[in-house]
Design a protein that fits this description.
Length: 169
Amino acid sequence: MDILQLVWFGCLGGIAALGFAMLFNVPKRTLIYIFFLGCLGIVVKKLILFTGFEIFFASFAAATLIGVFSMFVAHRGHAPPLVFSIPSVIPLVPGSYFYKFMIGVIELIGVEGTGFTTIFNETVNNGLSAIFVIMGLSVGVSLPNLIFRKESFHETSFFKMVKKKNKQE
């Protein structure tokens, strides 16, 4: 995979995240963070797919990374973490699987005989793939919120380590 192509896909993911952020009417001060989180999500997903993993794991890992960084960025952007994570993760939704699933459902209506089994298998495969990717995205985004729910992100050991390192410099 070419690095220029990866940067291009990242920028497109960031622009898509910005579009959804504007649709949700988020504060203007959060837009730059949402753009970079959208870029990060697409780049991580593409890199993991390039290494040979399945789309389920790639989407889950990208969504988890977005969730973790949205917890960190929430304090800098003075907004709840969901303001950053939800618009940033929407570009990871597998639209092609949903499209192929719906087309397969429509084709099943008029098909008879041996072609029915082939189209049925492809339709179910596309539908299940889309559902599992969506489940991975939802678990990946909510997992950091569940882990850090009881304590503020400022009180975690990671944040204290970064803060201590910045003071030493």
